[in-house]
Amino acid sequence: MIKNWLKIAFINYRKNWLSTIINILGLSVGLCVFLLIFIHWQDEKSYEQWNPDRENIYLVENFNASFGTMPVSSYPEIFESKEMFSEIEDATIFNDWGKKKISFGNNSAYVSAGATVSSFFNFFPFEKVAGSFKNALSDVNKVALSEETAKLLFADDYLNSIGKTVKLEVDDKSYIVTAVYKKPLGKTVIKPDFVFMNPFMENSKTQWTSYSYYGFFKIKPGSDIKVLEEKISKKMQSEDEISAKKWGYEVDKKNPLKVYLSSLSAIKLDAKSEGIEKGDKKSMMILLGISALILILSGINLINLKTAQAAQRAKEVGVRKVIGSTQSKLIFQFLLETFIICFAAYILAFAMVELLLPSFNEFLDKDIKLNNIDIFVYTGLLLIAFSLVSGLIPALYLSNFKPINTLKGNFVRSRHGVWLRNSILTLQLIISSFFIICSLVINTQVKYMMNKDLGFKGDQVVQIDFKKTNWEKNYNSKKYQLLKNEIAKIQGVEDITGSISSIGRGSANRSVAKDARDSTKIVESTGLGAIDENYLRFYKIQFLSGRDLNWKIASDTINGAVVNETFAKKLGYNSQSVLGKEILTGWDDRKKYRVLGVVRDFYYSGVDQPIIPIVFFNYDRNWVKNNMSNIQIKLSGKDIEGTMERIKEFWLTKAEPGYPFDYQFVDKQFARTFEKFQKQQTLFTTLNIVVLIIALLGLFALSSLLIEQKLKDVAIKKTLGADEKTIVWDLTKRFLLICFIAVLISIPFGYYAMNEWLKDFSYRINMPVWPYILSMILLLILTFAVVSFKAYRATKINLVEHLKYE
User: Fold this and answer.
1) 3-state class (DSSP) for residue 62
2) Counting beta carbons within 10 angstroms of the beta carbon of residue 153, is it exposed (0 to 12), middle (13 to 18) or buried (19 or more)?
3) CA-based, 20 to 30 A from 250: which of 236, 266, 494, 611?
């Protein structure tokens, strides 16, 4: 029986070769897209799964009305909470300090550094290679190394490195090696190449609202997390009130401080804040939904084509029923035929995934491998479920044919099943229209962001970050001046400036500022614009009023300030009335700053983020000078490559020998803020093309089958004198009507989805009307082009061949 079913299946595949190919290609493309997004999602979910205590470890996040929800905490919030609340079993902190140089003798390594405390290994149980974790970080003179780092420093003798001393660039001091560990093989956001005791903790132990550390709690099993969040929140609110009285700011009673605890197993996707290397869950879920829609679209093609082929199978079903076949056997037969098509598409889809995975990894900047057995299990179950769902509708439809009707030979003229095909075709076109609308709106928003006036000129400007060392000796500001003087001598360098914040990376530090004469006028979350004298001229930032800072005027270097227009507005003034006003700031509360000028707003961060209020002032003062860590160089346009080679030679031989030469062009650095949305644009455009191809292929195959069933009608009309235009219009108008209705239905869904997407942007387009109109016009044109092509060919039939049996 199975053998006969297979024979019948392959006879029908060969007979309807076009629709078979379209089904397999459509399904394989749909499955390929779904698989790529699915394995990306699985990869993101796999983070921290290596840690056996992941369900009991929580990242501490804080909501503050001025700064939003932050992934960082204060020192006392973490360690005093451990003593205050019995639910907390242990606590630790960790900060990724980026790449730092560590050396032993003539050997050195430039690797990622982690500043932490002694409890670190209780939370992150890396495999021990040598030494002991018990007292590995018990004081500020100890360091633990990863196995890779130990090998770089000690070569084959790395197992005997315990007790030896290494030097760290962070303070040029000697540290004793106490342990060597293996970094986990599993995915993790905590992956330092060496860890040491955080040197700044002593200064932070009483600062409850100084958010500087990634803090983690190990919670006792069975504890109520919500209750614990409320307890810590109340403590933080009371400490906030104490700080407000001390520093002279008002507590926001409507939006009090709030503490959130996010499980380590879920922080990659579900952290309340930006987390630690947090993935873009919202975009990922959108992509999963889109890929599911593409898969549904492929299934719709399959259902539609199978039901459209009903006329060809009607007599077969009638004969089978007459000779005793049951409806259940017919259903199983048709399900088997569907499963064969789905399985062939499944194999082809995995081949496509293997082919596209390297490019997909490069696009996402990931290293996803197709080696997770769960992927094959889940997708295998998906294949079975998909085959059942997409195969059951045509199977039930075909198996319900009545033998007496089908054997009369007039099934072709019957309207049975027309409503089903029309409904499914409408759904298919609704999805296609939805994608076109979304793609056009996304492209418009991204284009709007990329063409927006940024308020600065950053072309031919390169930024080089230098290594911060010896903060006790104010070396960072001195190093900046030394580098500035030397690089200015290099041929091809036009100008040099510096700042503690970087365009494209956002403001490095924020604080509270207020009017010196009216304490009710407060500007929270004010950016610290510590800059060199020529910074604003360097980037050609426009002044709205007043003047620039002038280092030749002593008062300018001591208490002069330039503010942006957002700061002036938030302080309650305009660009003219704010001039001459004195302000007090959280970073220098004993000294008054006098506003000398107001500049037009410009973007430090991406244009999707709101412009923050900023106060610009002399970088070479108080603790701020220690935050200087970059130099910004404007190059002559005549020989950029040659100039960069000369700067590189200076950097590697004189400025920072032994370190890699890392730099970024400022305009490209800022362009990275668009990267997320450009990728969304690229993905949506690509998926939109995939959707249209699948939909149009399905429409072509369906129209071909339906028009073939009307060839005798066409022959009769031609015999009676109908011209080709009339016949083509008669054959296509039903499809155009369905398309028109589908677009109308898709409009509210597209509007809702895009309105939700645009809410993420502080600066966004007004919802345009033209994408909805263009979607209708485009889909009508494509539908007419696809259907009319087949309809026109139908007008060229041989009349005798189709009328000889009438």
Assistant:
1) strand
2) buried
3) 611
